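HUMAN: Mind sharing a backbone?

ASSISTANT:
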Amino acid sequence: LYDVLHDTEYRRKWDPNVIETFDIGRLTVNADVGYYAWRCPKPLKNRDVVTLRSWLPMGSDYIIMNYSVKHPKYPPRKDMVRAVSIQTGYLIQGTGAKSCTITYLAQVDPKGNL
């Protein structure tokens, strides 16, 4: 599950709302900056976000956290609303050889008119 959450190419297969996702750049061995755009239900405009993501494997447990950042090469697009990830993350806890529990926390400001 940890590997699936990190694989931007594979995300296009399991996430039906993804419009575009890619890594912008690696900062350290445990941190990168990335872009994610997703479809919203009508009549809302689609959203996108640029985030700084960091992760930490701890034995059979993993933490992945992100929050919004600005990047000069990826300003807000005119065809989307730039959302803000205040603090978003996953806690993946191994519960057996082929099982885990996942906790997802999302504190996001979707911006725009809702």
